[in-house]
Design brief:
Keywords: Methyltransferase, Transferase. Its EC number is 2.1.1.-. There is one protein chain. Strands 1-2-3-5-4 form a 5-stranded antiparallel sheet, with helices on one face. The protein has a single domain, classed as 2-Layer Sandwich (HIT family, subunit A), CATH 3.30.428. Helix content is about 25%, strand content about 20%. By secondary structure, the protein is of the alpha+beta class. The two termini are about 30 Å apart. The protein is globular and about 40 Å long. Bound molecules: guanosine-5'-monophosphate (5GP) and zinc ion. The site of guanosine-5'-monophosphate has 13 residues, from strand 2. Guanosine-5'-monophosphate (5GP) binds next to strand 2.
Length: about 120
């Protein structure tokens, strides 16, 4: 199903009309803390151009987005003392996607029982 990008909450965050706790920004990518922290430091990395899901990403957008992930992960590791990470994307309602602007979840892990399954 195609969702209307005019109502996209993440585009509003990029525009600055909805605030966020920014972790990283460049011309093409924004990373910010998830409003609902599954683990401490839970961060979302999004392309600034609206793409609904993994199927809509282009290789160029995906390549740049993933190129900044190691640096963001290391910064979160330093800040919060995470000892592991899960990288996760939900694409499609069937997969649990609730915001239809592609985002990569960076989930810092502290122990196997730190609240994320
Ligand atoms: P999804 O379920 O689509 O994989 O993940 C969407 C994520 O966006 C959820 O983890 C949810 O907490 C987060 N989220 C939804 N609305 C907002 C918001 O307004 N600000 C921030 N920072 N995160 C949001
Ligand atoms: Zn959007």
């Amino acid at each position: 199903m195609t969702h209307n990008p005019d109502n996209c909450i993440f585009c509003k965050i990029i525009e600055g009309t909805i605030p966020c706790a920014k972790v990283y920004e460049d011309e093409q990518v924004l990373a910010f803390l998830d409003i609902s922290q599954s683990t401490k430091g839970h961060t979302l990395v999004i392309p600034k151009v609206h793409k609904q899901d993994v199927f809509a990403l282009t290789p160029d957008i995906a390549a740049h987005l993933f190129s900044v992930v190691p640096g963001i992960a290391k910064a979160i590791q330093m800040e919060y003392g995470a000892t592991g990470f899960n990288l996760l994307n939900n694409s499609g309602e069937q997969a649990g996607q609730t915001v239809f602007h592609f985002h990569l979840h960076l989930l810092p892990r502290y122990s196997k029982n730190d609240g994320f399954k």
